[in-house]
Amino acid sequence: MRKIAIVTGCTSGIGFEISLELARRGYDIIGTYNTSLEKICSLSKKIDVVGVKFYYFKVDLINNLDIDNFCSYIRNNFKHIDLLINNAALELDCEFDLKTREEFIDILKVNLVAPFSLIQKLYKIMNDGIIINISSTDGIDTYNKLYIDYSASKAALINLTKSLSITLDDVKICAICPNFVNTKSVQDMNQDYLKEEMKRIGQHKLIDPKFIAYKIIKVIQSDIKSGSIIVVEDSYE
Fold this sequence. Notes:
about 240 residues; alpha/beta; 8 helices
């Protein structure tokens, strides 16, 4: 029986590459997106070439009802999910004094509460499955003055991963923590600021999103311990 993977934020640079690599490995893909129907169509065409099934759903991860409806559909239509990748994330770069309470809460909703909700609602159909949370080194030790809310959410996601590893008996859960990845949001940053930040944290080059997909495959294929936190550096192994 073909395996099934859920990838949230499947139209992003990282989510796109994860979805495509898993499809190449024979997984049927269930992807969520929020705004980019054009990118969904592009991913769908690439997955069609591979020959596996691709189901996609518009889900606003800030909206509790959207999450509830999505999870209900999954539970009612799929007997088992093998892999859940909590990849979708929200980041809003601005100085500390300009950040608003509402924006901070929205970031927590997408980056922390949504993964919690998806795991809570789906883990019972994931016996012997794997959950991978995409966190960040900003949640460990690199930090960033423009992304304090993002960093806080990613630190909490790491903690959630650790806590759930001793809570969920029949599901393995891990977190992958990259530093700067070559995605559109990073490309759109002030490049002088980006260079300064990369120098500050000792990162020599941007990580290719395909490398994140590669690391996920390595995690799936390994006997890695539940609760493991995998830091992704800026070079291939």
